[in-house]
Design brief:
3 domains, mainly beta, 13% helix, 331 residues, elongated
């Protein structure tokens, strides 16, 4: 009787496990790449996470750039992996093909106050010299005083953009002088101008304003959308500074690169943030060459100057630091 009960329990347990086995043996999803597809869009479609594409790259040796996938190619998604299906494989011939679907183009919204590296000096009209009641930290609707008077073409009602200039920025590797980090802080409008100075009100502010901040002719900030754009040249550079001044960076942070129009960088270029893997020489007995770079994140260029550019970190798989290398192709 006891043996009979054990046999029944065995079959009941086996029956309960059948759905788990079936799920583990599910067929992979095969998708035909259409015009306009990117790893970004494919990640959103199959992984429900558009920011997952660098992980897909890191798990797949055949895909090295989100722009270098072509219509007609087939990709296989299985267990979080992306694989290019070779045309000759039997798997491709047998597997069902999903209905063609074009991924939506990904765009990034730029507010215009991300800042930039000023390669040359700033020709400022003047500066904030004091705050009302001796205040050193000023914000929107606060009263400020400037060194711009009627002798300096200042007049009641005239607007100025408030800028903050950092100390000289040096390249983290070459130590070459790159320029100054410049951050827009807000807008100031003169309410009463005298011969040598003026009283003003801060009509808008994005960050705190302090005495010593510079004033330049007013220029409205332009919000814009930047769409992804394939690089036309192989790019290799460095993160030389961050918008917030921190050394440790994460997704959403503004950074500045030593790549500009002269190097072939363009708005919309997505670059990989990489970390070189060092060899433990004590453990190696023969020449092994250079190890593949480790991809730790990605960024998108949103503004370019001659030799520098402003970018936004859109993905960080691991800790990203000022001084990390950026490349158009991680191989």
């Amino acid at each position: 009787m006891r043996l009979r009960i054990q046999i029944i329990l065995y079959f009941m347990l086996a029956f309960m496990l059948v759905p788990c086995v079936s799920k583990a043996e599910e067929e992979p999803v095969i998708y035909v790449i259409q015009k306009g597809d990117t790893l970004w869009g494919l990640s959103e479609r199959f992984m429900n996470d558009p920011f997952y594409w660098p992980n897909l790259w890191s798990k797949n040796q055949f895909v090295t750039n989100p722009h270098l996938i072509f219509p007609g190619q087939k990709v296989r998604f299985r267990d979080g992996h992306l694989e290019i299906v070779e045309p000759e494989t039997a798997v491709q011939k047998a597997a069902p093909v999903a209905e063609p679907e074009v991924a939506k183009e990904q765009k990034f919204s730029v507010r215009g106050n991300e800042g930039w590296l000023m390669e040359n000096g700033i020709n400022a009209d003047g500066m904030v010299i004091a705050g009302q009641h001796g205040r050193l930290i000023l914000g929107e609707e606060d009263t400020a005083y400037t060194d711009i008077g009627t002798d300096h073409k200042g007049e009641d009602g005239k607007k100025y953009t408030i800028l903050r200039k950092s100390d000289l920025i040096r390249h983290p590797v070459t130590r070459i002088d790159l320029g100054y980090k410049v951050m827009p802080l807000g807008v100031l409008q003169i309410t009463h101008a005298t011969k040598l100075n003026s009283r003003a009100i801060i009509t808008s502010s994005f960050k705190e304003v302090e005495p010593g901040d510079l004033l330049v002719p007013y220029k409205p900030l332009k919000r814009k959308e930047v769409g992804l754009k394939a690089t036309t040249k192989d790019l290799h550079g460095y993160i030389v500074e961050s918008g917030n001044g921190n050394n440790t960076l994460a997704a959403g942070d503004v950074v500045y690169l030593d790549l500009g129009k002269a190097q072939g960088a363009e708005e919309g270029n997505m670059l990989y943030i990489i970390r070189r893997v060092e060899i433990e020489k004590m453990m190696v007995k023969r020449y092994v060459g250079t190890l593949p770079n480790e991809v730790i994140g990605a960024l998108v260029i949103v503004e370019t100057a001659k030799n520098t550019s402003t970018a936004i970190v859109v993905k960080s798989i691991d800790a990203v630091f000022k001084g990390n290398e950026v490349v158009s192709s991680p191989q």
